[in-house]
Amino acid sequence: MDASQSREEYKFLLPADLAESVRAQIAEHLPADQGSPGGYDIVSDYFDNAERLTYWQKLVGHPNRRRIRTRTYLSSKAHRQPAAFIEIKHKLLDDTVKRRIPVPAAFLDERDPAAPLVLPPIDEDDSQPRSQWRARAELEELLAKGFNHPVVRIWFHRHAYDAGRTGRLRVTFDSQLRWQPLAELAGDLPPTPRPLFGPGETIMEVKTAGAVPYWFRSLVAQHRLVPRGTSKYARALQHLNPSTQLVG
């Protein structure tokens, strides 16, 4: 599935004793993404404004919300370099779309995690696709409005199954979820991530650009799975303020 494709998303929080069984069933129907059956690691930094507006929009179920994050994909294959992006995740009613620009992995590695987010400079004659220029302009607008405040870093391991670039279904399993406030990552101190969910809990996310196939509906019914509006970012902020109640 094209990363920029508009789609509906459904999330399920799977307990430790069910996650591997469900993933094995998905693998019977969809190939492993990027030819990585063992999955790959992801590191994401999340940004908001000083009032944590996008967090509160999530809590109240605001129908139109955008959030900025950086994301680095660490391939399990030694010959592949990390792929890094600055992204806008846009939720509009029931549809979700991701707009992003690629950046050098070193740019994210070397930036001060506790500093406000800025975009890397580009050459005037840079031949990026028009969609990336539009995404960059949107990012610049949001950052200028104050949505550049560093909040949290989240680490996790992902197994992904995808029907292909022209396909209409993608299913991911995010496990080993950990988090840490970005303010604690300044300087030379090593990261000390905390668990984001319970032991062994896994987020299964289904992205579909059309009707969910019958085999997947049967799988959901077999295991009595119920979609949940699970947000990694919102869960991390709930850990920062345990009195805050999440929606969904």
UniProtKB/TrEMBL annotation:
Domain VTC: 7-240
Pfam families cross-referenced by the UniProt entry: VTC
UniProt superkingdom: Bacteria
InterPro entries per record: VTC_domain, VTC_sf
Protein name (Swiss-Prot/TrEMBL): Polyphosphate polymerase domain-containing protein
Taxonomic classification: Bacteria, Pseudomonadati, Verrucomicrobiota, Opitutia, Opitutales
